[in-house]
Amino acid sequence: MKTEVPIQRKIRRSKRRRKLAKRQVKVRVKKRVKEEGVSPLVEKYWLQRYDLFSKYDEGIKLDEEGWFSVTPEEIAVRHAQRGGGVVVDGFAGVGGNAIQFAKMCYHVVAIDIDPQKVEMAFNNAKIYGVEDYVDFIVGDFIQLAPSLKGDVVFLSPPWGGPSYKAMKNFTLDLLKPKDGYSLFQIAQTITPNIIMFLPRNVDLHQVEELSWLSSPPLCVEIEKNYVNNYLKGITVYFGDAACGQLELS
Ligand code: MGP
Ligand code: SAH
User: Fold this and answer.
1) Cα–Cα distance for residue pair 126/137, rounded to 1 Å
2) Which end of the chain is more exposed for a tag (fewer CB within 10 A), N or C?
3) Closest CA relative to residue 96, chosen from 132, 136, 58, 67
4) Which stretch of DSSP H or E encloses residue 103?
């Protein structure tokens, strides 16, 4: 009984200390966030910056859309392991995927409609030393597709911003700039070997239906992608990217 009071005091003191330490970390994070000019929307992605780009500190550049859309490096590496030959990245953003494809495949055609994204992707590719393996194009993938050649097409189109997760079932018509069926058919004018990176709440039945748009239906494989045990997205591989050996042109 005699020792109870000091023990309780000790517990209270250590709780107070832990609270204070937490508050100090928060203040330090807020300070760095402010220094880097990061908006409140971007803050939570900034905290994951080394998962997004392991070389972040070497001068990686992202804008707001780039922050919330870039594929985490670990997942982009996985995608690249399934690519080969010439890869067309139709929605290249700030280059998260294009960089990893360039490290592992023969060549990459990286397209984005936003000139600033393409500039950032070029800067980021230079940091990874792969800029010579990428053709950076400012343009609309939908318009350019019929004139492109490639062994694999990679599609990670806009999902409508971070609010995509409010949807219980993310249907393919919600993809931008066109619905998923149209994007898939446009990609098929280049090759049936298609890789799509989609929201974790995507309608998997609709995803499977995409393979039935071809006759005979394309081989399809669905993969859940985790970072630190947290589900980040779903990748769908079609054609030779799903099964068999990629036949390179
Ligand atoms: P998220 O769900 O917004 O973040 O994005 P987080 O931290 O996993 O979510 P939380 O709110 O559940 O804590 C997860 C990942 O999805 C991002 O890191 C991007 O790789 C990808 N992503 C998110 N958005 C909104 C898009 C998008 O519009 N397009 C593409 N291609 N990828 C996106
Ligand atoms: N995989 C990328 C993220 C892509 S985000 C990465 O890891 O960095 C989707 C991108 O599609 C955005 O950068 C947006 O500018 C681009 N985009 C939107 N409409 C487009 C279109 N019609 N053609 C090409 N790019 C487009």
Assistant:
1) 16
2) N
3) 67
4) helix 96-104
Task: Give the ligand whose atoms come closest to the C-alpha of residue 70.
Answer: 2
Residue 167 tokens, joined = 């949807």
Please check whether residue 101 is in contact with residue 131, taking contact to mean a CB–CB distance below 8 angstroms: no
Residue 201 corresponds to which tokens in the numbers above? 């709440």
Residue located nearest, by CA, to atom 24 of ligand 1: 69
38 CA from centroid of ligand 2 (Å): 21
DSSP state of 162: G
- pTM for the structure as a whole: 0.92
Distance from the alpha carbon of residue 69 to the mean position of ligand 1, in angstroms: 6
Instruction: Answer yes or no: is the C-beta of 160 below 6 A from any ligand 2 atom.
Output: no
Measure 93 CA to ligand 2 centroid, in angstroms. 5
Ligand 1 nearest atom to the CA of residue 197, by list position: 31
Q: To the nearest 10°, the Cα dihedral for 60, 62, 67, 71?
A: -60
Query: Given pLDDT bands bounded at 50, 70 and 90, which one contains residue 24?
Result: confident
Tell me how far the alpha carbon of residue 170 lies from the centroid of ligand 2, in angstroms. 19
The percentage of residues in the chain with a pLDDT greater than 90, rounded to a whole number, is 78
The Cβ of residue 160 has, within 10 Å, a number of other Cβ atoms equal to: 14
E strand spans, the chain: 86-89, 107-112, 134-138, 152-155, 194-198, 220-227, 230-238
For ligand 2, say whether the CB of 93 is within 6 Å of any of its atoms: yes
